[in-house]
Amino acid sequence: MKSIYQLARPRALASLAAPRVLTVQSPRANRLWQRRFSANSIASEGARLDASKLTITKTSVPKELSPAKDLIFGKTFTDHMFTVEWTAADGWHSPQIVPYQKLQLDPSACVFHYAFECFEGMKAYRDNKGQIRLFRPEKNMERLNKSSARIALPNFDGEALTKMIGELVKLDSRFIPDARGYSLYLRPTMIGTQSTLGVGPPGSALLFVIASPVGPYYPTGFKAISLEATDYAVRAWPGGVGDKKLGANYAPCIVPQLEAASRGFQQNLWLFGEEEYVTEVGTMNLFIALKNKETGKNELVTAPLDGTILEGVTRDSVLGLAKERLIPKGWDISERKIRMVELVEAANEGRLLEVFGSGTAAIVSPVRAISYRGELVSCGLKEDQEAGEIALQMKNWIEGIQYGDEGHPWSYVL
Amino acid sequence: MKSIYQLARPRALASLAAPRVLTVQSPRANRLWQRRFSANSIASEGARLDASKLTITKTSVPKELSPAKDLIFGKTFTDHMFTVEWTAADGWHSPQIVPYQKLQLDPSACVFHYAFECFEGMKAYRDNKGQIRLFRPEKNMERLNKSSARIALPNFDGEALTKMIGELVKLDSRFIPDARGYSLYLRPTMIGTQSTLGVGPPGSALLFVIASPVGPYYPTGFKAISLEATDYAVRAWPGGVGDKKLGANYAPCIVPQLEAASRGFQQNLWLFGEEEYVTEVGTMNLFIALKNKETGKNELVTAPLDGTILEGVTRDSVLGLAKERLIPKGWDISERKIRMVELVEAANEGRLLEVFGSGTAAIVSPVRAISYRGELVSCGLKEDQEAGEIALQMKNWIEGIQYGDEGHPWSYVL
Fold first, then answer.
1. Which of A113, A152, A234 sits opposite B258 (nearest CB)?
2. Average pLDDT per block of 10 residues along chain A, 414 residues long
3. For B363-376, what is each residue's pLDDT tens digit?
4. Which of A17, A74, A282 sits opposite B108 (nearest CB)?
5. Contact between chains at A72 and B2 (C-beta distance less than 8 A)
6. Which of B6, B9, B15, B16 to mutate to test the interface with A (most CBs of A within 10 A)?
7. What whole-number percentage of chain B has pLDDT above 70?
8. Could A107 and B251 be called an inter-chain contact, meaning their C-beta atoms sit closer than 8 Å?
């Protein structure tokens, strides 16, 4: 019987399994390794992902559109999906757009057992000229490549995928409601499909994209949420994978989320370490606006990308716009570690201006209060106020770019 | 548009999403929560898993048996599989044994996006009377229930599942080679199948069991492996899920495994924290036999179950047998934290007797050396020796029970 190393990808790993001489390095192994970590490059073995090979098979049974007001996030999907297979031997196969359909996978496929899976969340918007736009798609492509590399799944040409996502969106554009706040949520996903139970790098994978029409996150205006500061469970750890958009980061957070919900809180605010650093919300990054004690200046703070924080595209957009448009108004913009006690102190001293989450779904999500050690920390909103000034401004700025009201390089017209 | 909370399981979560009054606790939510964490109980909502409802559909195209010597771990499967669906509304549906077949799942199924998946590894053995035996199946059932509860998947009646696994094994018993060291590897797996992208507890799940005939891990006798002590990546942490058999614990370990392999090491030995505690190997627990500096006595050490260590069934069996059979010979048996420097010191002072991994696949896996900070720590084996005395003894003891040579309550005759 062969050892576990020989199973997973016989060709690629044969040279790794054999040697017992500890100083020998296999050139083959090194190439494999380099490919795995070269997150921004395309797969160096086999065929590249080639948009010119895209084939489109249209559905013969177009779906009926749901009324826009009934849309539920990620529940209904468009007529078609994008799909492309990858194998270690041949690289990327021919990409296809096909009718939305079930995946057929062997029950031993490694995605079911070892969580070989990563994804992205992005949106397509219809502007007031009827054009369709993506928002910073290159950021999603870059992150998906980083995520896939971290779990030994293949890399791909992000421009090629963006182009083919564009084809999918154009084909299914009738699903994008023509109203502000509505969009087509896109979910690029990569899974390992190898059908053996050996624990090793997948020898085959599937990259697919599905699309779900969605309405505004806050249809009747902002509604501030409340968070439970959580330290009994820990979302991410240095040396872990909390900065990657892996399936592995999500399932373990649901039970703490249910526990918080049972006490009336919509999400967990994940604290880290003895210092109780404020990290993120699991589905959102967190921004804190306060009057800095030392400088006396207004400061917009978010946790730095230290490996435990998801590299949010909206987070990056908020930071970029804040640097461009808030610094001139006297703000400091900081990516720095901030302790929960600093947030509490600012609240107690009337220096906490506002707190909001950032993410693709809601753009910004204002926070009313944070439960911490049995106390409810008020986050600066008045009782009848559902959003702070900065959150409101950020939503307007970002939405203005997403819907093309403002010409901006972040908006990508299909 | 509804909020993320209302999507995932509308019925169960409706009461969680609405209230803003922070002190109100929803009785519904509490029941849900209690079920989630009552890892040893069966699902309290809907129907129980009922073995009396099992239906069997036999294949019309039985597979040809592979020659025993060609068997590769987890690569070929038997004629049939066990499968049962669960829904939040109805509980467990009717269990079935059906021909081995592909799973058909919506591309939005939560197992593909958020790693709602957990599994077990166990084996069926043919004894010298031709009877078929399982080894401590109740431990696997208990652990699978703990794993599923941790990621908001349903619990089930472990005795009922064991009984039905027995039916599957008997139906496919021709696949178990009649030779020492051979067995039928069983892979109970539970996945979340809900087809929406909202991040919440799955409203539906699938529990399935597939079976793969396997040969002896070391067909030509033991072959000691070498490990790379790893601190740049972290497998598990306090407050995380490293003690559960979740898919989420596996994919993130593959790239470090490839890196270790590129330097000639078969597995990572995961160190934790500034203290560099020796934890486990990811696919195995670790045992260290040394002469204790303080007591002068022989000591068999393994890391304690502090939440970062998988609760291995073989680990528990090694500990149980060691307490019963080694303590009378003057050994101390310790579940305690041990630092890498303590292991190095023992090696340098000639007090390190042997090191071995424990797991279902190999039972025990002797370790020749551990790479640590650029040095190679020799783990007590002579150059021509592939296994230490304790590892050898443990393998014989456990195999003797598994194959029914020794009557023992751990062995479960079907």
1. A152
2. 35 32 34 34 72 98 93 95 97 98 98 98 95 98 98 97 98 94 97 96 98 88 94 95 98 96 96 97 96 97 97 98 98 98 98 97 95 97 96 97 96 95
3. 999 999 999 999 99
4. A74
5. yes
6. B16
7. 89
8. no
Separation CA A155–CA A157 (nearest Å): 7
Q: Which residue has the tokens 């950020």?
A: A394
**How many CB atoms within 10 Å of residue B332?**
15
Distance CA B220, CA B222 (A): 7
Query: So what's the pLDDT on residue A221?
Result: 81
In chain A, the N- to C-terminal Cα span, in Å, equals: 53
**With contacts defined as CB-CB under 8 Å, which chain B residues touch A22?**
226, 263-265, 369, 371, 376
* pLDDT over threshold 50, residue B9: no
Q: How far is B325 from chain A (nearest CA, A)?
A: 30
Contact B250, A193 (CB under 8 A): no
For A227, which residue in chain B has the nearest alpha carbon? B22
Choose the closest CB to B102 out of A104, A232, A239. Answer: A104
Residue B47's pLDDT band (cuts 50, 70, 90)? very high
Which of A199, A207, A208, A265 is most worth mutating to test chain B (most B CB atoms within 10 A of its CB)? Answer: A199
> For chain A, what is the HEC assignment?
CCCHHHHHCHHHHHHHHCCCCCCCCCHHHHHHHHHHHCCCCCCCCCECCCHHHCEECCCCCCCCCCCHHHCCCCCCCCCEEEEEEEECCCEECCCEEEECCCEEECCCCHHHHHCCEEECCEEEEECCCCCEEEECHHHHHHHHHHHHHHCCCCCCCHHHHHHHHHHHHHHCHHHCCCCCCCEEEEEEEEEECCCCCCCCCCCEEEEEEEEEEECCCCECECCCEEEEEECCCCCCCCCCCCCCCEHHHCHHHHHHHHHHHHCCCCEEEEEECCCCEECECCCCEEEEEEECCCCCCEEEEECCCCCCCCCCHHHHHHHHHHHHHCHHHCCEEEECCCEHHHHHHHHHCCCEEEEEEEECCCEEEEEEEEEECCEEEECCCCCCCCCCHHHHHHHHHHHHHHCCCCCCCCEEEC
Check A1 against B191: CB less than 8 A apart: no
Which burial class, exposed, middle or buried, applies to B64 when counting CB atoms under 10 A from its CB (0-12, 13-18, 19+)?
exposed
- Confidence at residue B220, expressed as pLDDT on a 0 to 100 scale: 78
- CA-nearest residue of chain A to B207? A107
Distance of alpha carbon B136 from alpha carbon A14, whole angstroms: 35
Residue B44: per-residue pLDDT: 53
Number of Cβ within 10 Å of residue B11's Cβ equals 10
Per-residue pLDDT of B119-141, as tens digits, reads 999 999 999 999 999 999 999 99
Q: B2–A73: do the CB atoms touch at under 8 Å?
A: yes
B188 Cα to chain A: minimum distance (Å): 10
Q: What is the DSSP string of B331-356?
A: -EEEE---BHHHHHHHHHTT-EEEEE
Assess whether pLDDT exceeds 80 at residue B163: yes
Whether the Cβ atoms of residue B97 and residue B80 lie closer than 8 Å to each other: yes
Question: Is A237's CB within 8 Å of B233's CB?
Answer: no
pLDDT for the residue numbered B278: 98
User: A240 CB contacts (<8 Å, ≥6 apart)?
Assistant: A307, A308, B233, B234, B237, B240, B252
